[in-house]
Amino acid sequence: MSGYQGDIDPEEAFSVLQSDPGAVLIDVRSQAEWHFVGLPDLSTLERELVLVEWAKFPGMVPDPDFAQAMKQRLEELGVAPDAKLLFLCRSGVRSRNAAIAMTAQGYGKCFNVSEGFEGDADGEGHRGNRNGWKKRGLPWRQG
Predict the structure, then answer these.
(1) Is residue 93 one of the residues assigned to a domain?
(2) Exposure check for the chain: N or C terminus, fewer CB within 10 A?
C-alpha cells in the first residue's frame, strides 16, 4: 500500500457508508459503464453516489484534469478534506489510482474498493461471477 489508506472490500465499503454519515462513495468508471453496466444504489442510505470519470471512453486514457474535477465536485458537495472517500471502478485498478491521486491532493482518508463493481474476470474472461459489488449482492441499479 502506498499513497492512500488501503483497500477495503465492497461489503466493508457499504458498512462504512451505513455507519459514517460523512463517508462518500465515488464511482470513477466511464459514463458508458455507468449507463450499460449499472451503478451502486445508495438510495436506502439516502446518500448521493458521486460520479467522476478517471478515464474517458472509448480511449480510456486517464483524464489529466481528474484531480481538479474531483476536488471541485467534493467542494460543491461540501465534503470535508478529512471525510472517508471510497473509490470504486470496475475491478479496483482505476479506483486505486484515484485514491492515490486524491491523497496527493490533501484528502487523507482515501480508500480503494477492491474487487470493484464487477469484480475479477473468471476463467472465461467474464466479470460479475467471482466477486465485486454486484456479485456480493449489494444494492445496485441499471444505469
Answers:
(1) yes
(2) N
